Amino acid sequence: xxxxxxxxxxxxxxxxxxxxxxxxxxxxxxxxxxxxxxxxxxxxxxxxxxxxxxxxxxxxxxxxxxxxxxxxxxxxxxxxxxxxxxxxxxxxxxxxxxxxxxxxxxxxxxxxxxxxxxxxxxxxxxxxxxxxxxxxxxxxxxxxxxxxxxxxxxxxxxxxxxxxxxxxxxxxxxxxxxxxxxxxxxxxxxxxxxxxxxxxxxxxxxxxxxxxxxxxxxxxxxxxxxxxxxxxxxxxxxxxxxxxxxxxxxxxxxxxxxxxxxxxxxxxxxxxxxxxxxxxxxxxxxxxxxxxxxxxxxxxxxxxxxxxxxxxxxxxxxxxxxxxxxxxxxxxxxxxxxxxxxxxxxxxxxxxxxxxxxxxxxxxxxxxxxxxxxxxxxxxxxx
Length: 383
Prior knowledge:
This protein is α+β, with helices and mostly antiparallel strands. Helices cover 31% and strands 14% of the residues. The strands form four sheets. It has a four-stranded mixed sheet with strand order 10-9-8-11. Strands 1-4-12 form a three-stranded antiparallel sheet, covered by helices on one side. Helix 1 packs parallel to helix 3 (63-83) and helix 1 runs antiparallel to helix 4. 35% of the residues are buried.
């Protein structure tokens, strides 16, 4: 699948990032100069690269050599950092910090890409044992009201690491709105499907209607209905999903149609951030090594983090005053600000450090293989 990459490639690419942007500027030679062609992702300023859709065809270097490459680069980075003066360290630290956060993004992509690859296997292999179900019956869906007004949005400069697309901090005016108390779950999906939602053109944006008809889509990705039960493949294998589980693996088109069916809409990213900032929600950490959606908790707005990325109605664009950094690292976010839609929150695959109110995830509207879900919005203070 063109949007997914093998585990070996992810490990090599994140290693290449440190080698290229941390070590080479300090005069440390490359492990193998040919690796830049293989493991550069999209940095035009660095040079040519192997086509993304063909990454799965790279039988060499093998996994053991990628491991050796990683160990060597890790050691060289540690040696370099230990040898730097305090002033030189302050120059290098932002790049190292970016590299660490870049790697955390790939930790999430590793899981989504493994899930997609396993889903193509007729044996339906499981990456992990199934976690306990979140509950048989969904908590009632209500709407939490928020006053309109002038809000400050974006990353706070002294609050820790943030990607450049999370700033600059700026003000935005919002009219009064309401957000759903939880994410849309399998129960609402069942209502949509049984009411013929995938066959009702009036619920869909024109582009979305064309998309689902062209691909024969009748359920979220990896899922199907069988005798009324919703069966979906996940990292825990293929199982019937309970009515209370959050709906995942829907495109923006599906999210928009389901929201319309439920007499609601998708929130803007400004509404989502303003509401989440007021709630001060924190991601729930797993009690064991199993990945599972975060519990509902007692807050007014639940599942802000740790269950599913939430589609917004906002196109991915620069904030007022944004300027991409010079050089290759300036290609990290800014050049993708076209043809993409913003998602907020985080999923059960997201490293906890990336579950913050200012984080801006973005994917094309037809994306379904990510852990994408739905939070509803309505105009005004509707409870």
